[in-house]
Amino acid sequence: MKIIGLGKGIPKECVTNDQLSEFLDTNDEWIVSRTGIKTRYVCVGETLTDLSATAATDALNKANLSAKDIDLIICTTICGDYCTPSLACCIAERINARCPAFDINAACTGFIYALELADGFIRVGKYKNILIVSAEKMSAKVDWNDRNTCVLFGDGAAACVVTEGESVKYINLSSSATPNTEVLNMPNGTGNSPFAAEKKQNEYLNMQGQKVFKFVVNIVEAELKLMTERTGITPEQIDRFLLHQANKRIIDYTLARLKQPAEKFPCNIERYGNLSSASVPLLLTEMTETGQVKAGDTLLLCAFGGGLTAGTCVMTIDS
Ligand code: ACO
């Protein structure tokens, strides 16, 4: 499998840390020093379908394909505009595609899970051109009274078109076996069922930050070690590490542990915050647009999040 087009869809409204401190007990110094985040983009009038369709159209244009050339649409999201239709079906309607379309939920790791699925479909010859869209509207999922979580996230979409090729060298997916629901969750409510014993109204994201932080730094290190054991590719042979943009401190910790230079770990968390599953593909899109990823480069993509899930992909960039 190889990527032949990348695109993005970002809301217009950019919100600074100072704007948050106008209604929340927080400040720019805390947010920047603890997370690296300076701004995030937030939907005002846009739906997630709007952002996704923009990203999808951008990726199709870059791939020189039209919607009728796409055999399958896979979306990764925890924030779809509807439970049904899926976000993938909303995008299909918007771009006028007639192919099968469905969503998957692996939280922040969604894009790597989608790559694995697409790679499998392409390998067995079921589909040729697959559109992957990773899109999140976290502003609708966080509690804006909770300074522990709402300052961390933003909204945005990224898309890629993949097809037959030899670019993807390795993918590993995991989900943690230990009970993890309590450290990171986003509950569904009970609706207004008259039969439900307990009413569950809080549908916001809940996160025990420090516990998740510990899981993340350990799993990233374990994922990278496993990748080297299985492929023989060492960190020195990786040109760019594209890590999920959850916290700049996680990225700094990882590069220090691997003894790799900071320039190998590009970041856009300072502008976007945590975009859940859209973080890694958005970073890849921007790195490609700005020429910071070039033909011949070997990239490592690594994401982690709710589940607790994790995933790693190694790919080379074709000329
Ligand atoms: N502004 C000011 N103070 C704050 C804020 C804020 N926005 N948020 C928390 N604080 C306070 C806390 O109340 C606490 O105060 P106290 O000591 O008086 O109790 C203090 O700052 C320290 O809080 P911690 O939670 O210990 O801060 P920490 O350094 O751990 O940073 C953070 C929190 C940024 C959430 C970090 O733990 C983290 O990044 N965790 C990992 C997140 C992650 O990787 N998530 C995975 C993906 S998300 C997904 O899948 C949807």
What would your notes on this structure say?
With 319 residues, the protein is of the alpha/beta class. The protein has helices at 17-21, 28-35, 48-62, 87-95, 110-123, 209-231, 248-258, 269-272, 279-289; strands at residues 2-9, 13-16, 39-42, 72-76, 101-104, 130-137, 155-163, 168-175, 184-185, 206-207, 240-243, 298-305, 309-316. The strands form 4 sheets. The protein has a 5-stranded mixed beta sheet, sandwiched between helices. α3 crosses α4 (87-95) and α6 runs parallel beside α7 (248-258). 45% of the residues are buried. Residues 26, 30-31, 34-35, 107-108, 147-148, 151, 184, 209-210, 212-213, 216, 246-247, 274, 276, 305-306 line the site of acetyl coenzyme *A (ACO). Acetyl coenzyme *A binds at residues 26, 30-31, 34-35, 107-108, 147-148, 151, 184, 209-210, 212-213, 216, 246-247, 274, 276, 305-306.
